[in-house]
Design brief:
alpha+beta; 2 domains; 2 helices
Length: 119
């Protein structure tokens, strides 16, 4: 009888440890799933590319960015406080990406593209 109780106690301990390991693993997966978001990565790439284009632009230059982009459908493009904000596939931008330009930069939205003008 005593031997049965020891085996049952060990089995209960193993089951509890497995459940705890599973819970910790699930929490880890949920925490990292929010960080690794494909749309978020595409959005950051677009913001950085546009910021680099603005950084290297000279007055009188303009460039077009198609709304139907390989990195996703661009729904919004804004320039605020020296940062580029891009909304991709329903995901709005909160952080933005900084650009550095001594010139006046503006964005005009057309039917299927955005036009960035450096003056």
């Amino acid at each position: 009888m005593r031997r049965l109780n020891k085996q049952g106690g060990i089995l209960n301990q193993i089951i509890i440890q497995l459940i705890l390991v599973g819970i910790v693993f699930a929490i880890f997966l949920l925490a990292t799933a929010g960080k690794v978001n494909a749309r978020g990565v595409r959005q950051q790439v677009l913001e950085k590319e546009i910021a680099l284009l603005i950084d290297s632009a000279v007055p009188g230059m303009s460039f077009e960015i198609r709304k139907n982009n390989p990195n996703g459908v661009i729904q919004a493009l804004e320039l605020r406080d020296g940062k580029v904000f891009v909304g991709v596939a329903g995901l709005g931008s909160f952080k933005g990406y900084p650009y550095f330009s001594r010139y006046s930069v503006s964005v005009a939205e057309e039917e299927n593209k955005f036009v960035v003008v450096v003056e």
